[in-house]
Amino acid sequence: MKIAFIGLGNMGYPMAVNLVNASFPVIGYDLSAIQVQNFTNEGGEVAETPADAVRDADAVISMLPNGDIVRNLYSGADGLFAKVKPGTLIVDSSTIDMQTARDMATEAQERELMFIDAPVSGGTAGAAAGTLTFMVGGTTDALERARPVLDVMGLNIFHAGDAGNGQLAKMCNNMLLAVHMAGTAEALALGAANGLKPEVLSKIMKQSSGDNWSLQKYNPVPGVMDGVPASNNYEGGFMVNLMLKDLGLALEAATASQQTTPLGALARNLFALHAGSGQGGKDFSSIYKMFDNS
Ligand code: NAD
Fold it and tell me: Where is the 3-hydroxyisobutyrate dehydrogenase-like NAD-binding domain (predicted)?
């Protein structure tokens, strides 16, 4: 299966490299010359334009920042839906709004293409290790066709339902992630401000009822855990601006369904304040700095 991979950023690059290492022929495309160079260094082929990347592809995977970019890439007379071979499988793993995912699935079906929304969880470490969780919206047929490719990049593949449901699962998950990351940072900073070392408090809470993924895998305090963004000046990882986007998606869904999400709304405000103080390009665990008085 020849694969075109569009978007070789923090997530897309390691995902595409895993496909290359699994001997899939992959042609990558990204707007950033640095990302393109990195991919070439890992043995990937690259194209000058998205249309060149998809010309001979059997499957297209995209890993892009937001729904507008995804819509512009695929839709309309100049979009990739009009450029791919008949029957091509399209997997959008970007985190975007449900409506765009559903519109893309409808347009793809009208053009006799297969489209799934397949956003992921697991962060850049999961992308590098090939252990991502995929949350898939779309038909069973399309998912089964994508499975051999998803299996290379992920460990858990869930069929969440019809088109758009992968995105719905993802925004619910990330709203919860934002809440427990902010709460974890708040608790660790409270301990530190009163003389309890963050590494000691982390160890205690990991074995207690406050345990959660942020504590286990992504400690927000610099120096407590190796290999996480907090121990690398909050570089790499998952940007505050992207978390803010995801919280916006969750709140849009809440508004549309007249659902109350008070903790999600508070988390969105905290991350918006944090982004507004110049931290938008840092990893989202840098929310710890908002609480840290040391
Ligand atoms: P990123 O900003 O590191 O990467 C996005 C890449 O897309 C960049 O390299 C950029 O140059 C490229 N790009 C932008 N517009 C383009 C276009 N029109 N054509 C081609 N390339 C284009 O972001 P990321 O962290 O890799 O996130 C990508 C998606 O994955 C987002 O939707 C994000 O919400 C989601 N996500 C991220 C993480 C994480 O931990 N970073 C985890 C799960 C999901």
Answer: 164-290
